[in-house]
């Protein structure tokens, strides 16, 4: 018959009290009491189980042979059907670890498993137990926690991997909740606990997804005092993040899938959080990664339009951070080289921002940062903007309003200053004045028909004749012409010239020599020699009628002119023919003093006929035919 649980509980409490007070730590009383408590963990009465959980810790340390059995008995209580018993078991685990620190790692692992409980009250007890383990040995406890974060290999059973995934979430949640205790009491700067935590978390980053990595970085690592400035630990964290970015970039480049490239965006954001916002890692290192892996046009074009805008914004912000904060010296690419590379890429980077009147403030600020880099290079190195950058800046001026950013417009004007209005107006005014003066002077020298005013007008009533000019070798000597008496006529001849020059006329159209009239005969219009003959005869000739027009113009007789009998009848020789006649004597040089020609006038030679000089009529006929 089973004894009354109340009586049994009263008896056990008395035995436990005597065992605790027994000076013989390894005596039979203490041994028998420990064995009895281990047996009570399997009792059907919860109060007896609770009594066992509360007192095993005082006795198990003295009997190593019973230690393992006692620990397993406590673990069994943590899985009891009664919540009160389980809670007492959680507390008993802490007491076991406190009694023997060698059990901290083992018990911390068990408590992590117990964090998956669905009962909120029980979870709070387990968290408290883990926190106490952190106080007992932070390095060991943190390492156990971080070990449970890493995912299992694919070779492990799928069910186990799913359990690990759930456990990871539980552990991260616990670490986040205990962050204050971890930062303020356990992971102190330079402590073993801090080193263990940082090393364990950074090690698991390559194996985790972004959501877990973000919790680790934002909630666990960055709050640590070790990340309050650029350091080697910050550099290691940044490299772990950039490795994740490079992994997605390589996969996206091989597959051509834009969605895979998009997976790199959150890691770039996280890297910017570490570098730009928290300044926990050197910005120069992140800028090097952008310039070598992302900012090139070929790579950037593979991203979607929205991702391009985000990438360029982060790049510009990283450039500013690298300029503002002193960077540690290393063997990498220097900042000045990276800055030039960014400026050289500005045409496409600015286009990728896709600026518009509705662009977000971050994109507009990124444009300001890039334009400042361009302006700095221009001022420091007298750099000349390439045409494609000038075209991009011109487009930005039309898309970005001054209400959005006055800095954008000011920087563009500094990079590409507009031409001065006063100089343009002055130049235009000067050119207009010069043009007006030139036109005015030309107008004074030109008549209404466009010919110079100093030249006499051509008679309008006479049909135009084609003038044949001989070559320069057959031209009469100018001195001989000037010495000829006919070259210098009297006042009457000069007045006739002035009279013809003063009368307005329109220039008649040219006609070919030897043109024929409607009857098929050669035009009977007066030739030059006939007009000269009429003028010398003194007969008045009307301008409207060629036979009535006065021509008081003297014909200049050249020293080598042929005899009067060599001229054709009725003066039908053209000037070309007359020049040919004088070509025989052109080679003979003459001077003003050696002129010896008869003083007969042209009229006299005309009246003398074609044979007055003894010329054969047949010769005259042949010459006329050639002309």
UniProtKB/TrEMBL annotation:
Name recorded for this polypeptide: Uncharacterized protein
Segments for region (Disordered): 417-627
Keyword Calcium tagged: no
Gene3D superfamilies referenced in this protein's UniProt entry, alphabetically: Leucine-rich Repeat Variant
A matching Pfam family: API5
GO biological process: apoptotic process; negative regulation of apoptotic process
Keywords, ordered alphabetically: Apoptosis
Membership in a protein family: Belongs to the API5 family.
Gene Ontology CC, one term: nucleus
Comp. bias regions, Polar residues: 427-451, 591-613
Residue stretches spanning the membrane: none
PANTHER family: APOPTOSIS INHIBITOR 5 (PTHR12758:SF19), APOPTOSIS INHIBITOR 5-RELATED (PTHR12758)
Biased composition (Low complexity): 527-538
One Gene Ontology molecular-function label: RNA binding
């Amino acid at each position: 018959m089973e004894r009354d649980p109340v009586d049994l509980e009263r008896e056990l409490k008395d035995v436990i009290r005597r065992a605790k007070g027994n000076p013989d730590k390894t005596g039979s009383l203490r041994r028998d009491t420990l064995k009895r408590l281990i047996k009570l963990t399997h009792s059907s009465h919860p109060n007896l189980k609770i009594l066992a959980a509360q007192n095993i810790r005082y006795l198990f340390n003295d009997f190593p042979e019973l230690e393992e059995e006692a620990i397993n008995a406590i673990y069994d209580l943590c899985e009891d059907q009664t919540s009160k018993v389980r809670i007492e078991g959680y507390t008993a685990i802490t007491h076991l670890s406190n009694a023997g620190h060698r059990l901290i790692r083992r018990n911390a692992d068990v408590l992590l498993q117990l964090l998956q409980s669905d009962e909120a009250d029980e979870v709070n007890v387990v968290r408290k137990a883990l926190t106490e383990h952190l106080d007992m040995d932070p390095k060991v406890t943190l390492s156990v926690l971080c070990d449970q974060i890493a995912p299992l290999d694919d070779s492990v059973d799928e069910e186990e991997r799913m359990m690990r995934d759930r456990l990871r979430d539980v552990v991260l949640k616990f670490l986040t909740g205990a962050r204050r205790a971890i930062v303020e009491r356990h992971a102190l700067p330079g402590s073993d606990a801090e080193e263990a935590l940082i090393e364990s978390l950074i090690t698991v980053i390559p194996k985790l997804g972004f959501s877990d990595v973000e919790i680790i970085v934002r909630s666990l690592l960055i709050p640590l005092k070790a990340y309050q400035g650029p350091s080697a630990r910050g550099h290691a964290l940044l490299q772990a993040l950039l490795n994740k970015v490079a992994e997605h970039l390589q996969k996206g480049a091989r597959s051509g899938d834009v969605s895979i490239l998009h997976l790199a965006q959150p890691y770039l954001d996280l890297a910017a959080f570490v570098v730009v916002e928290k300044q926990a890692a050197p910005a120069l290192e992140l800028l090097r990664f952008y310039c070598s892996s992302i900012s090139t046009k070929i790579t950037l074009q593979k991203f979607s339009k929205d991702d391009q805008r985000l990438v360029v914004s982060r790049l510009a912000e990283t450039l500013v951070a690298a300029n503002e904060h002193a960077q540690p010296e290393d063997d990498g690419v220097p900042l000045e080289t990276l800055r030039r590379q960014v400026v050289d890429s500005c045409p496409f980077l600015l286009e990728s921002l896709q600026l518009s009147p509705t662009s977000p403030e971050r994109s507009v600020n990124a444009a300001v940062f890039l334009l400042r880099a361009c302006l700095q290079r221009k001022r420091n190195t007298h750099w000349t903007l390439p045409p494609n950058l000038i075209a991009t800046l011109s487009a930005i001026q039309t898309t970005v309003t001054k209400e959005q950013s006055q800095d954008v417009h000011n920087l563009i004007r500094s990079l590409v200053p507009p031409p001065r209005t006063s100089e343009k107006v002055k130049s235009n005014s000067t050119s207009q004045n010069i043009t007006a003066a030139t036109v005015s002077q030309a107008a004074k020298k030109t008549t209404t028909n466009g010919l110079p005013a100093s030249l006499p007008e051509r008679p309008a009533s006479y049909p135009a004749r084609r003038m044949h000019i001989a070559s320069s070798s057959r031209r009469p000597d100018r001195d001989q012409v000037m010495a000829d008496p006919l070259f210098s006529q009297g006042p009457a001849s000069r007045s006739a010239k002035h009279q013809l020059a003063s009368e307005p006329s329109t220039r008649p159209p040219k006609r070919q020599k030897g043109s024929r009239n409607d009857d098929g005969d050669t035009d009977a219009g007066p030739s030059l020699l006939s007009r000269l003959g009429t003028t010398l005869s003194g007969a008045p000739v009307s301008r409207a009628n060629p036979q009535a027009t006065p021509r008081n113009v003297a014909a200049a007789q050249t020293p080598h002119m042929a005899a009067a009998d060599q001229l054709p009848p009725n003066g039908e020789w053209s000037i070309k023919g007359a020049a040919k006649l004088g070509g025989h004597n052109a080679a003979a040089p003459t001077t003003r003093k050696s002129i010896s020609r008869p003083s007969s006038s042209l009229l006299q030679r005309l009246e003398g006929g074609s044979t007055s000089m003894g010329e054969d009529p047949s010769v005259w006929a042949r010459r006329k035919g050639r002309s």
